[in-house]
Amino acid sequence: MHCALFCAEYDANDIAGILAQSGSHAVLCLYAQGLRNPKMVLRELAPSFPGLTFRIEDGTEQPSRCRYTRDICRNFTAEERARVVA
Questions:
Q1: How far is the C-alpha of 1 from the C-alpha of 36, rounded, in Å?
Q2: What is the pTM (predicted TM-score) of this model?
Q3: Sign of the CA dihedral 5, 11, 16, 48?
Q4: Phi (first) and psi of residue 5, to 5 degrees
């Protein structure tokens, strides 16, 4: 799955939480521009979601799949958001 590291509608923790709750073992490719230390982000995410694999791509223009993920997240119910944040 491809998504932005963070944006107005969601961040990587939201998406990773939903994937982990569903039992997924997906590769989550995160797009971010100009991260000074991408490995630090990976070190923070990986222990929280051990079933997932993370990859970070440096990109100013995120692929259409990121926009698709953003559109899905816009449709989260309050319950889904609360479950991911909890």
A1: 23
A2: 0.67
A3: positive
A4: -60, -40
Q: What is the dihedral of CA 81, 52, 66, 37, to 10 degrees?
A: 100
pLDDT digits (tens, 9 = 90+) for 31-82: 888 888 989 999 999 999 999 999 888 865 555 555 555 555 555 666 665 5
Per-domain boundaries in the chain:
2-85
Backbone angles phi, psi at 3, to 5 degrees: -160, 165
CA distances from 45 to 34, 40, 64, 74, 78 (A): 18, 9, 23, 22, 23
Q: DSSP string spanning 19-75?
A: HHHTT---EEEEEESS-S-HHHHHHHHHHH-TT-EEEEEE-SS--HHHHHHHHHHHT
